[in-house]
Amino acid sequence: MMFSNIGFPGLILILIVALIVFGPNKLPEIGRAFGTTLKEFKNASQDIMSDHNKKKQ
User: Fold this and answer.
1) CB-side neighbour CA atoms (13 Å) of 55
2) Where are the transmembrane segments (predicted)?
3) CB-based burial of residue 27 (10 Å sphere; 0-12 exposed, 13-18 middle, 19+ buried)?
4) What is the pTM of this model?
5) Which of the 8 DSSP states describes residue 3?
6) For residue range 20-49, what is the model confidence (pLDDT) as tens digits?
7) pLDDT grade, residue 2 (50/70/90)?
8) Are 19 and 27 within 8 A, CB to CB?
9) Alpha-helical segments (H) within the chain
C-alpha cells in the first residue's frame, strides 16, 4: 500500500495541513467523498478480478 511508510507523525501532519487548507467544516464532506471513492474502487477491482478468474477457468 502506498501509505504504509508514512507513519503516525506523517499522518498527523497531513491532517493538520488538510485542516488548515480546507477548514473544519469541509473535512467531513471530503472524508465521506474519499471513503465513497475508495469503496467504489475496491468494488470495481473485485469485479475485475472476479471476471478475470472466470475467464481463466
Assistant:
1) 6
2) 6-23
3) middle
4) 0.56
5) G
6) 998 888 888 988 998 999 999 999 988 888
7) low
8) yes
9) 7-22, 27-56
Amino acid at 45: S
**CB contact at 8 A, 22 and 30:** yes
Bigger pLDDT: 51 vs 19: 19
How far apart (Å, rounded) are the C-alpha atoms in residues 15 and 27? 9
Euclidean distance between CA atoms 43 and 56, whole angstroms: 20
Query: Amino acid letter at 13?
Result: L
Whether 51 shows a pLDDT value over 80: the answer reads no
* Count of residues making up the chain: 57
